[in-house]
Write a structure and sequence with these properties.
alpha+beta; Thrombin, subunit H; eight-stranded antiparallel β-sheet; 21 strands; binds glutamic acid
Length: 720
């Protein structure tokens, strides 16, 4: 950590300094880079070529993760943790694919992964000018943000109407400034082909999550299917494997320390261009709130899972997600503290203010910019705990039944509006997906867990007083002792509700306001009672978004003036290129992390932690390792099979499953995580601590060949 702190002190002196290596380059930037000088053996046209075949044609967005094609028959390689939902959805105590893994020995045995879709980028175009024409001078802040939203929606709907089967999205690149329309090819029939046992795919469990050294075989295979005529279709036995324009060969020679590598993927979101006020809000309010709430939920779900495999399987996906967020947030909180990130940015802002004040024109334009930003976050902070409580109470990521009830209520309000004025989830183009997401969530429904969750959420929501009070919740608790009142309400409500039935949920989602009210379902009634508070909160968010759009656009402008150069936009779920080297790092004084782990390391962890479930490896793997049965997959420098590797590329969540390439664009690994110290790079990137983690391709191939005997897949990937 000392090294890391030292670096930050140097950056303070230079203000806004950015390492030369930082960068998640959007497609539009690639042709400006000197790829050859960076170490690439492919040119910009090999990476993206709208009129031909390029690497981008083999890169997939898989429901928020990244993935890639590894055969001409639509075979997809992604992370185990990205495919986890598909495995969990079909696992039962009798066919425990989580424990044992899954391998479809023939194509007909591949299992539909119903929650999954594949998106492939087709083209993109800058639409900033068109979008910004929606803003008129006299508009209020809320009107501005609604106008931008509606204009984007209109553009997307118009495009999709004239291009059936395609998906379009408008992505905001720089807040309030630049917008790009992305066009995607879209595939709905996705199937699970191979997943290792959890004791490989998630080896190390939560002990090792976001950590190094890591020995996790975080990989899985899926396949994309289309109708026989090549069009996009829902699952059908008649469907045939999709034939991608591009798929990636595996680099036979593997990879060594200090080798150049690059990644193409879909990083979700970073916040490097925001102000100190945002960072302070994250550090002091939002992240601690989420950590506290999620820890409570984890405790509950672990208790419910204990001793009941059926319940444990149902709750496993959500538990995994909760843990993942908690550990990442703890890494980020620690990073913020150790690096004094808020103070650092405050100091940068003092220099910025001086720069602004040094010129009368600039002062007129930006004079109050930082004070205005401070004001937005001050206002936000005042109501944020209450708003976070309310939005979590209404989210089906917390309580499935309450979340679904709320969506049903919201749909009835939204569906009476013009399509492009609705919240995105209820637009015609998204409605089926919303319905599917709601009904599928019920697969993980477990009433005792739901009851306990709702009791706690209602208890927390009832604690707000005066202007922040949430009357519908206070009403439930009124009259008698709070805990008893909540128990009685929940007892009665769970006995009466029908929302645990997916068919009823589907039907309700299409009902209008009056029809829903006559149903008299207790959770729908509660959703209606909470709706005005939710509306008011949403409206406030839109006002703040409108203000921030303007302020953050100005912040980028003035920072550009100060530094005399352009920035790379923050990650926003659009395709990016990043590059770097296979490289270890030093997380603390006297500690040096090497860049590869090996099979031998699994044997070691297993042996030295006999009581720890996360480190228990499958017997067969241990035997193969002890027999040094490496086949041709050993690393020449290590004399062992490499399992995971470290590199200094710029990645974040959403880069999960991204292919890691050698300079020629051949596969050497599969990105799946970052180290604990690197979680902070969502807010500030630096080479000294930003290390991402990938599975080495040789471990993937070794597992298929030796552990699973998955010859069919090896042959399909051209591995002899
Ligand atoms: N392992 C990470 C996650 O599950 C994804 C990759 C990253 O954030 O670096 O969120």
């Amino acid at each position: 950590m000392k090294r890391i702190v030292c670096f930050f002190i140097t950056t303070l002196i230079f203000g806004f300094s950015m390492s030369a290596e930082e960068g998640m380059f959007p497609l539009s930037e690639i042709h400006k880079l000197d790829l050859k000088a960076m170490g690439f053996l492919v040119g910009p046209r090999d990476i993206y070529n709208p009129n031909g075949v390029s690497l981008v044609d083999g890169i997939i967005n898989l429901g928020g993760c990244t993935a890639s094609f590894v055969s001409g028959e639509g075979l997809i390689l992604t992370n185990y943790h990205c495919a986890f939902g598909a495995v969990q959805a079909v696992a039962t105590p009798e066919n425990d694919y989580l424990r044992d893994g899954f391998y479809a020995a023939e194509r007909s045995a591949e299992i539909p992964a119903k929650r999954y879709t594949v998106r492939l980028i087709e083209s993109y175009r800058d639409v900033s000018r068109e979008i910004l024409t929606a803003i008129k001078k006299k508009m209020s802040y809320a009107q501005r943000s609604k106008a931008i939203e509606e204009k984007s929606k209109r553009m997307v709907v118009a495009f999709e109407k004239s291009n059936p089967g395609k998906r379009a999205e408008v992505a905001e690149m720089f807040r309030g400034k630049t917008y790009v329309l992305f066009v995607y090819n879209y595939i709905k029939d996705v199937r699970l082909v191979y997943a290792p046992p959890r004791s490989i795919g998630e080896y190390g469990g939560e002990e090792d999550n976001w950590m190094w050294p890591r020995h996790t075989g975080d990989f899985a295979f899926m396949r994309a299917y289309v109708a026989p005529d090549g069009s996009n279709a829902e699952f059908s036995l008649q469907n045939v494997p999709f034939r991608p324009k591009k798929y990636f060969p595996v680099a036979a020679e593997g990879v060594r320390n200090e080798d150049f590598a690059f990644i193409l993927g879909y990083p979700g979101s970073t916040h490097r261009h925001k102000s100190s006020h945002y960072l302070a809000f994250e550090e002091n309010i939002r992240m601690p709130f989420m950590v506290d709430l999620y820890r409570w939920i984890i405790g509950l779900k672990e208790e419910m899972s204990a001793g009941n495999r059926g319940v444990a399987i149902k709750l496993s996906s959500s538990l995994k997600g909760l843990w993942n967020t908690v550990t990442r947030s703890l890494g980020q909180l620690q990073g913020m503290k150790n690096l004094h990130l808020v103070e650092q940015r405050q100091r940068e802002e003092i220099s910025l203010q001086k720069f602004i004040d040094s010129d009368p024109v600039r002062r007129r334009k930006y004079g109050s910019l930082l004070a205005d930003l401070a004001k937005v976050y001050e206002d936000k902070a005042k109501r944020s705990r209450r708003d976070l409580t309310l939005s979590n109470l209404l989210s089906n990521r917390i309580s499935i039944i309450m979340g679904n009830a709320f969506k049903i209520c919201e749909a009835s309000h939204e569906r009476v509006k013009k399509d492009t004025q609705r919240e995105a989830a209820y637009m015609e183009r998204n409605f089926d997906r919303t319905e599917k997401q709601m009904t599928m969530a019920l697969r993980d429904y477990h009433e005792p867990t739901e009851k306990a969750l709702l009791k706690e959420m209602l208890r927390r929501a009832a604690a707000f007083r005066d202007k922040q009070a949430i009357p519908a919740v206070r009403d439930i608790c009124a009259g008698s002792e709070e805990s008893m009142a909540l128990d009685a309400f929940l007892q009665k409500s769970f006995a009466a509700t029908k929302l645990n039935d997916p068919k009823i949920v589907s039907a309700c989602l299409k009902k209008n306001n009056a029809q829903l009210r006559t149903m008299n379902d207790p959770f729908i009634n509660l959703a209606f009672a909470l709706y005005p508070d939710h509306r008011e909160m949403k409206e406030d968010e839109k006002i703040k978004k409108g203000i921030l759009d303007q302020l953050l656009a100005k912040l980028v402008d003035v920072k550009r003036e100060l530094l005399g150069r352009d920035f790379i936009p923050d990650a926003n779920g659009t395709l990016r290129l990043t590059r770097g080297r296979i490289r270890g790092y030093s997380p603390a004084d006297a500690i040096r992390m090497q860049s590869f782990t090996t099979l031998g390391g699994i044997v070691e962890k297993h042996a030295t932690h006999p009581g720890l479930a996360s480190y228990q490896a499958p017997e067969k793997l241990l035997e193969l390792a002890k027999a040094r049965d490496y086949g041709r997959f050993a690393h020449p420098d290590l004399d062992d099979v490499p399992v995971a590797m470290l590199y200094d590329m710029d990645t974040t969540g959403g880069n999960s499953g991204s292919p890691v390439f050698n300079p020629r664009g051949e596969l050497i690994g599969l990105n799946f995580d970052r180290v604990f110290e690197a979680t902070i790079n969502d807010f500030a990137w630096d080479e000294s601590y930003s290390r991402s983690i990938g599975v080495d391709m040789r471990f993937i191939l070794w597992s298929l060949a030796k552990f699973s005997g998955a010859e069919r897949l090896l042959a399909e990937m051209g591995i002899k």
